[in-house]
Amino acid sequence: MLCISVNDTLIKFLSDDCPLHQMVFVRSVIGLTATLGLLRMEGGASLLRTDRPALHALRAVLIVVANMTFFAALAVMPLGAATALFFVAPLFITLLAIPVLGEPIGPPRIAAIAVGLLGVGVMMAPGADWGGIPRWNLLLPVAAAACYSGMQVLTRKLGAQSAASAMAIYIQGTFIVVSVGFFLVAGNGRFAGDGENEALEFLFRAWVWPAAGDLWIFAVLGLMSALLGYSLSQAYRLGTASVVASYEYVALPLAIFWGWVVFGEVPGPFVWVGIALIAGAGLAVFARERALARPVASARPIRRG
Question: In the chain, which residue ranges form alpha helices assigned H by DSSP?
Fold first, then answer.
């Protein structure tokens, strides 16, 4: 979560100058290089073999869409607010864990999910002041949360047979393929529009050579990409999805902190109420899991061959 908060802050910092697909390409190339080292430590290239390529491909596509929509939101929204809306993801994960993983949930957690969704409604209420941001842009973090939830539930499903480094490499590779595709189709900026929609401009802006002072930011983005990709894959591979998801709320106060320190952003009253409802609901789910003493780690071995 620390890596994610730093990653999001740096991408928002660069969003006025560089296109998103360029940042994704650079950070993924660096991240892939570092992750290959982790793969070697875990057992080597043989771990990349899988008998479930379709599920791995779906997982990678989901996280690419989740990242693109969330980062597009960062270009137009305060960091803390976008992160708060995204944090319905652990609630979505709890719901998806029922049909996909067979993890049961009872009425208390269903009530918590309803409270969390109410928090989203409060943040999107007509009285909330978003500084002229089109209301549909507020759906970007929620769409990102839905895709991210599907990715993490698939991580849990695939984790018994795949190493964390291998799953991270599949994702980094997909990011590279998608960003190269963006460059080939829109790398000259012809789809960026007239600048009226900052989110779309961020997605389709022409590639530029980064300023010398920004090169270190790209290096840090690559390092964060490698660390967060491996750590999340390992966490969801070993842990019960709804329990691990609850720990992600560490990123919410971090996002508010970075938004205040770096961008001078202070959430408004509607955002604070929404944050309280969404975070409270997620933490209630976590407390319920702890009370039921559900096992956190899987006892199933990793298949190495």
Answer: 2-14, 20-42, 53-74, 79-86, 89-101, 107-123, 139-158, 164-186, 198-204, 215-238, 241-246, 251-263, 269-292
233: in domain: yes
Residue 283 CA to residue 246 CA, distance in Å, equals 6
Rounded to an integer, what distance in angstroms lies between the CA atom of residue 229 and that of residue 223? 10
Q: Of 232, 78, 87, 224, give the one whose Cα is nearest residue 153.
A: 232
Q: Is residue 297 part of a domain?
A: no
Residue 305 included in any domain: no
pLDDT for residue 57: 87
Regarding pTM above 0.85, the answer is no
**In which domain, by residue range, is 8 found?**
2-292
Count of structural domains, the chain: 1
Instruction: Dump pLDDT digits (tens) for 140-196.
Output: 999 999 998 888 788 777 765 677 788 788 888 998 999 999 899 887 877 776 666
- What contacts 24+ positions apart, CB below 8 Å, involve 286-290? 286/243, 286/246, 286/247, 286/249, 288/106, 288/108, 288/109, 288/112, 289/240, 289/242, 289/243, 289/246, 290/243
Stretch among 97-111, 145-159, 176-190, 253-267 having the lowest mean pLDDT: 97-111
The letter for the amino acid at 256 is I
